[in-house]
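Deliverable D5.2: sample structural annotation.
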Amino acid sequence: MVEVMSQSKSLTKEEMNVFGFAYLGAVLSKDEVAFFLADVIQKKTEDIERFGRDALVKNGDLEVVRDLARFGGPYLTLLENVHLNAFVNDVLNEKAVVHSYNAIITRPDLKTEMLGYRFHRDQPLFKDTRTSINIMIPLVDYSAANGATEFVPTTHLFKEMPSDDFMEKHAISARGSAGEAFAVDAALWHRAGKNTSSDIRPMLAVKYTLAPFKQQVDFCESAKAHLPSASDLVRQRLGWDVRVCQTYEEFREPGNVRKFKSGQYDMSNTDIHG
């Protein structure tokens, strides 16, 4: 993994606090980009063959490969990336967990109008507090031309979305090279750009959230075949310490033993004005 940060942690945190987004620099090597690019395309091909294109269009999943943790291997190794974890710890905290872990393949031939193409936010506003971030790692060079994510800086600070005129005037597109990550506060208003190129734009998207919040997928179940050999860090990020107890007897086990470990209701380091 490439683990050289392009900016100091304090600067990227300040950018997240003020603007609601930050560029993280290269997090994948060229070989890793090549692997993930080929692999997510293959997995999407298999997904279409299994469920059918029409069904995936109908439920809004034609462009998504869901739950990358279930594949183990390099997808779990990525969650150990020093650069990514330092950033997550800096703008959330060490107890933060993965809320969702998907690949998104923006297609130039998509004719449907999905939610992602309209301005939206991925987390409700908690005034003055950051509860969740999205880290996106495009696998090809990205810009407005191939549908890079568009966002409006500072809108993570406000309860309501500004007017349509304001959003259209001030929206900017992410841009960078394959393997270079960028992050947005999950409360920042954003949308998928329209891919007007002739090629697909695949990327990896990892959403992190504070430990008390519910995850999109029960990764400890979907990736259970891989967890025995996974590191403590990977298990923690996938929610190992915040699993739901099935009974009250199970909850009565010692706090360091039971599924939902003690100390997970942690909101430290999340004040965006701090």
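Annotation notes: The domain at 9-251 is CATH 2.60.120.620 (Jelly Rolls). DSSP finds nine helices and nine strands in the chain.
The annotation will be released with the project's public dataset once the embargo ends.
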